[in-house]
Amino acid sequence: xxxxxxxxxxxxxxxxxxxxxxxxxxxxxxxxxxxxxxxxxxxxxxxxxxxxxxxxxxxxxxxxxxxxxxxxxxxxxxxxxxxxxxxxxxxxxxxxxxxxxxxxxxxxxxxxxxxxxxxxxxxxxxxxxxxxxxxxxxxxxxxxxxxxxxxxxxxxxxxxxxxxxx
Length: 166
Prior knowledge:
The chain has helices at 30-39, 42-50, 54-63, 66-78, 84-88, 123-136, 155-162; strands at residues 4-6, 15-17, 98-101, 118-121. The protein is mainly α.
């Protein structure tokens, strides 16, 4: 049985056989719809934004590697899925599923595959730490890395720094 989907033309609900996006009535609009879908697709983002430089391309490929999958799993099991940044402030946030580099890859690429440089974090602490890293190290898209900044690898200190009011 062929796979079907609704026509992608706004307001039309006619079924069409895949891979066609539009029904026979709206077939002339299909190239325009394909272009719009490509413009906002994840593959376009990956192609142009994640891979904007060789360094970023290498970093993106690292996160898709088997090495990273194994490191991440080892980090999460080592920390029992408990956020270390919350724990450093006296709270227990269980079921955290993010393995984060304590010292970011952009700052020190040599530590990217080192288990001691990984910490389990909850989503909130990861968000706060990312904001702090952008300010402290200058990481992130559109920022310039600051030269000569002391690398901080103490989780307790980072936990205090990311929770300071700005």
